[in-house]
Amino acid sequence: LALDLHDVAFKYGEGGAQSSAAPPARIDALNGRIQFQQGRWALEQLAVCAADSDFLINGSGQGSEWNATVSGQQLNVNAVTELVESFRRTNKLEGEAEEPTAPQKTYHGAMELSLARVLYRRGVLSDVSAHADIPPKTIRIENLSARPYQGAVTGLVTITRGKPDWYALDLKMDGIQSRIIDETAFLEPRDFHGILSGQIQASFPIG
User: Are 114 and 128 in contact (CB under 8 A)?
Assistant: First the structure.
């Protein structure tokens, strides 16, 4: 099966009883190719315009393993997360619940990132590049390079999933505004101010 997409747009979760509980998830435009063959899927030059984001995906996977490259102008992590959650909420309301006894399938992926702009929580990062290793438990964002408003940051970020999730940072900072830590690590402002340079190694819960 191969699907060629040309300016495909749709809303998901409209109408019926679910419309008030699960507002529509909107895809503004999809262009590219999706293939399924003998248990393997592939995304070829899939241009995505949705959730305040504009990026290109190339990737493939089979079974529990996948890899992808994501590049483009903007990735709004907050809006993309809400889009995914909107799909999940609508599926639950439509009665597509998972079997309670079914074992949870785990996935292991790898992703190369190259984005002009990334929005995460209240923070904005420019000129972002990184390699992400994404197993079920601990995400490693390696070879990270980004500009948080001014200056530059490079290094490694590890995110361990749990309740709460934990950040571990091993970063070199060169004249960055400390507000980026406030804006990405904490849900509520902590009033960080000032310029940071040097090496940081730290771990803390995300919240």
Answer: yes
